[in-house]
Amino acid sequence: MCLAIPGKILAINEGGSPRMGTVSFGGIQKGVCLEWVPEARVGSYVIVHVGFAISTVDEKEALETLKLFDEMGNSLDELKDPEEGER
Amino acid sequence: MEKNQTVDMLSGLSCPVPITDYKTVLLAHGGGGRLTHQLIEKMFLSQFDNPLLAPLHDGAVFTLGNTTLALSTDGYVVNPLFFPGGDIGELAVNGTVNDLAMCGANPKYLSVGFILEEGLPMEDLWRVVQSMKSAAQRAGVELATGDTKVVDKGKGDRMFVTTTGIGVIPPGRTINPRNARPGDNIIVNGPIAVHGIAIMSVREGLEFETAIASDTAPLNGLVDAMFGAGELHVLRDPTRGGVASALNEIAGSAGVGIFITEEAIPLTDDVRGACEILGLDPLYVANEGKLLAFVPPDSTSAVLDAMHRHPLGRDAVVIGSVVQDHPRVVVMKTGIGGTRVVDMLSGEQLPRIC
Amino acid sequence: MRYIDEYRDGEAARRIAGAIHAAVTRPWTIMEICGGQTHTIVKYGIESMLPSGITLVHGPGCPVCVTPLEIIDKAIAIASRPDVIFTSFGDMLRVPGSTKDLLTVKAEGGEVRMVYSPLDAVAMARQHPEKKVVFFGVGFETTAPANAMSVWQARKLGLNNFFLLCSHVLVPPAIEALLSSPGNCVQAFLAAGHVCTVMGFEEYIPLAARYNVPIVVTGFEPVDILQGVYMAVKLLEAGRSEVENQYVRSVRREGNVAAQKLIGEVFEVSDRKWRGIGEIPRSGYKLREEFASFDAEREFDVAGIAAQESSLCIAGSILRGVKRPHECEAFGGKCTPEHPLGAPMVSSEGACAAYYHYGRLENREAQPA
Predict the structure, then answer these.
(1) Residue A55 with chain C: CB contacts under 8 Å
(2) Which of B296, B352, C296, C357 could lock onto C165 through a cystine, CB 3.0 to 4.6 A?
(3) Which A residues in the span 39-58 are in contact with C, Cβ-Cβ below 8 Å?
């Protein structure tokens, strides 16, 4: 079961049990259970699966990953035409 | 108002039922994809076969005297009845107006049949009727005749509406899915998947910072402007089954291949977000107020200009073209540069969890 | 959308694909065990960007596909009862049991409802005290905390009409079973990023060492998958059987400890049967004794349901990555999404369904129209 997407916490209902919050996914909002991401704050990004946040997105690590892509060598385009590469 | 009487339709039926895989009708048979086609072909076309029905286009086109007419019918069972951007009444008028417009016809008259469930609030019925009145005015059609039935509580999902429309096709317009030709450009008049998501958002209880409103609208004015600017080969409104199913149907009818580019397909951020969260592919989500046009290369820029000048065509864009390769198959270049086949919808698209 | 779009960037994808081409010197077979990853790979045409020496095979990563036939038949029996509201995620509704599927039960008058979250099913139980609400708890470790929470909430609210039909499976035992089976040709694994978000990746380290396979914890967007493949290729080329983490923005080595704690309170590890593979010891979860009153299998007398698999379906070989869907005799003919013979054709993450819907042109042209 893998469909989990990142969203931004807009509001947290502190004192609720389980801890719930409102998360925005590109403009649409949904109530999400934040019980397992105690470190998350309003403004944090969380990964949400079936209505539950299972992790907080580590923004620093995310940026590192993106930088790695830039450091990759030659693009596929420079090697061959992608359509010709079809097996 | 008379209560509905049961009609015994099966007495005298002697042919064996042609669909043996399914003993009962499933919701998927109404999804607009393969199962719907199977139902139509095996149960209906096989029994009612005639040259008018065979093309299975949005409407039937025929000539009476010197006039070419188009006839179309559509049933509306949407739940909820009222949703952001419209209601069942507006859909019922625009839907049939659009089916006629997709045949190249100028819609003239509609008939409407209401099946009302006992207990439906009069207020709701009044609201629907008012919507139909404004929609008809906007589209330039008149409601010429109608029928009303009431069914027992629990038997009617509040309200079902069927509209049938008749329109006149001006001489010189030949629109048919079989006319798609290699080289034709495929144009969509604006962002896709809006209507389906608007409905789904009410059903799934999703909240939006600004509500996603259905884009239901009558397209006959836009279609007229397009005919005025150039040649059109095919018109189709991608309702149930989405853009993907409509393109597959046309590719199948015409025996041609279709190639589209994911990056070219217009999609608003909020509809995208909703699709992500529900695990839906926007290509398979129902549309209203949207059309696909297959336009030969030498008419493309004039038709696009004419569309951009019309309120319902401001975001019109070319999303792909008809090709010689892979006949009957729709292929898409994905956002990251790979290619994949865009298949016809099978049953219903269920929100994905995995 | 942030943290999604960047990982669907065509430029980044092409750079990584180029790097893979440059790094490969020998053919390699890499398996992913996650329906979501299968879906992405086929949907974005990732294989068409890889060098021909890299073979991506799809493992038993679709929990819908590996749910045993007997449990589906039990679900159907329970859902057919007039006193039950049966709730489930979307995909399970179409999986064929021995004679029919849950959607058919709905068509025949059963109360079958799709939910987005297990908490929706708990809410339904509160709203309908006169009915028994059953939730079909299918999934890998990613979904276990949510399902555990639903049972825990039901107990907290004092509900006596909420039940879980549990079919949870665990990834590391499946990897072990695959690696120890004769004829295994998988040389590296992409581990499911969201499973590891919950469970961490410590369990994979001894597996990598014992069987000499690199394992890369990978995300789900196309650029994640390409980067995961790149990292696996680098490890393979260097002969290093280690565990690396591509999905660093979500996965920590220890995983989500709070979620694991709740799983441990509600579930315990048990033996589980995997459809198409057979029984794998200690490869699933079942409810702990103190939550037994919420177990649907105890509440409803559904023992002794005999299950009949289609003799044509080769789901087992597909799920083990031994055969690819288009190599199945029934693929596209007797077995299609409209009338599937087995689970991998029904679930949108199942390898057969993915190949059928998105399948590369060569495969498609071989199919009957």
Answers:
(1) 197, 250-252, 256
(2) C296
(3) 45, 47, 49-52, 54-55, 57-58
Please give the Cα distance from C356 to C285 (Å, whole number). 32
Q: Report chain C residues whose CB lies below 8 A from the CB of B328.
A: 369
* Strands of B228-308, DSSP E: 234-236, 257-261, 292-295
Q: Does C58 contact A at CB distance below 8 Å?
A: no
Contact state of C249 with A59 under an 8 Å Cβ cutoff: yes
- Residue C347, chain B, CB below 8 Å: the answer is yes
Q: Using the beta-carbon criterion (under 8 Å), do C349 and B35 form an inter-chain contact? A: no
Give the tens place of pLDDT for each residue, C220-263.
999 999 999 999 999 999 999 999 999 999 999 999 999 999 99
pLDDT over 70, % of chain B: 88
pLDDT < 50: residue spans in chain C: 365-369
Provide the residue type at C114 as one letter: M
pLDDT band at A87 (very low <50, low <70, confident <90, very high): very low
Is the distance from CB of A52 to CB of A65 less than 8 angstroms? Answer: no
> What is the residue-wise DSSP string for B49-109?
--TTTTT--SSEEEEETTEEEEEEEEEE--SSSEETTEEHHHHHHHHHHHHHHTTT-EEEE
Q: How far apart are the first and last CA of chain B?
A: 49
Q: What CA dihedral angle connects B203, B286, C116 and C296, to 10 degrees?
A: 100
Residue of A nearest to B205 (CA): A30
Buried b (16+ CB within 10 A) or exposed e, C269-306: beebbbbbbeebeebbbbbeeebeebbbbebbebeeee
Q: How far is residue B226's CA from residue B313's CA, in Å, rounded to a whole number?
A: 10
Interchain pair A50, C194: CB under 8 A: no
B31 vs A56, more confident: A56
CA-CA distance, B348 to B31, in Å (whole number)? 5
Chain A environment of C170 (Cβ under 8 Å):
none
Q: Chain C: residue nearest B337 by CA?
A: C10
| Residues of chain C found within 8 Å of residue A51, distances taken between Cβ atoms | 116-120, 146
Distance CA(A35)–CA(C129), nearest Å, equals 27
d(CA A57, CA A48): 10
State which amino acid sits at residue B179: N
Q: What backbone torsions phi and psi does residue C122 show, to the nearest 5 degrees?
A: -65, -40
Question: What value of ipTM does the predicted structure carry?
Answer: 0.87
Q: State the Cα–Cα distance between residues C249 and C197, nearest whole angstrom.
A: 10
Which among C116, C223, C349 has the least Cβ separation from residue A50?
C116
Among B222, B229, B226, B252, smallest CA distance to B328 is for B252
Return the SS3 of C264: helix
d(CA C314, CA A44): 45
Instruction: Name every chain C residue with its beta carbon within 8 A of the beta carbon of A8.
Output: 2
The radius of gyration of chain C's CA atoms, rounded to the nearest angstrom, is: 21
Tell me whether residues B336 and C43 touch, CB distance under 8 A.
no
Cα C208 to Cα B205: distance, rounded to the nearest angstrom: 44
Instruction: Answer whether B21 sits within 8 Å of C4, measured CB to CB.
Output: no
Facing residue for A36 by CB, picked from C12, C48, C145: C145
Which is nearest to B219 in space by CA: B160, B272, B287, B277? B287
Residue to substitute from A2, A45, A58, interface C, most C β-carbons within 10 A:
A2
Q: Which structure tokens are listed for C321?
A: 């990555």
With beta carbons less than 8 A apart as the criterion, state whether B179 and B55 touch: no
Global model pTM greater than 0.80: yes
Per DSSP, the three-state class of C199 is: helix
What residues of chain C, 316 to 355, have a C-beta less than 8 Å from chain A? 349
Q: Quote the pLDDT of residue B337.
A: 82
